[in-house]
Amino acid sequence: MCNHYYISMTEPHTLTKLIVLYMLDRVDFPVTKAQVYDFILEKEYANYFTLTQATFELIEDGYVESSRTHSATLLSLTDKGRDTLTFFQNRISEGIKNDINTYYEQHRVEITNRMSVMTNYYRTSAGDYVADLFAREKSADLINIKINMPTEESARSVCDNWREHSSDIYSFILENLL
Q1: Cβ proximity of 32 and 72 under 8 Å
Q2: Measured between alpha carbons, how far is residue 33 from residues 17, 51, 71, 129, 165 in Å?
Q3: Statement: 3-115 belongs to CATH 2.170.130.10
Q4: Domain spans of the chain, in order of start
Q5: For a FRET experiment, which of 63, 88, 112, 159 has its CA 20 to 30 Å from that of 18?
Q6: Within a 10 A sphere around the Cβ of 21, how many other Cβ atoms?
Q7: Residues ≥6 apart with Cβ < 8 Å to 88
């Protein structure tokens, strides 16, 4: 077997790894770690320790990519993860696959809305903060705004307010620019 596609089949949490890969493969955008964890823990497919260990190993081994915003950790499938899933997907029961597909059908709007308006903030080398705000439709950014802020508190406030007012702000900008 080619090492590129190898996930140890002797580990007790291999199924958990495959479930995570399958969940990430069902969508074409990053998903929050909390959403993946909530589903797997609610269905009792794994306990928290096993899930955490499996996710860590998937990230470390390059099957899953992780990125952090100020409010969430995002997970997405890498090409290596997709290739591996294709090879081992038959080890996931149809019942589990159906549960995942049903979950996404029932929560697609909520998940899509959560991922369509994102924020982050970070400290610059000058000591101030940048609030990074964006709205996305499918996999394309509609708008991305970076605002320098004097304090972490103000950057966090801007990020928190963006989620609630992004649609109005986007409309205002378009109306005034067009």
Answers
A1: yes
A2: 13, 11, 11, 25, 24
A3: no
A4: 3-115, 116-177
A5: 112
A6: 25
A7: 5, 7, 18
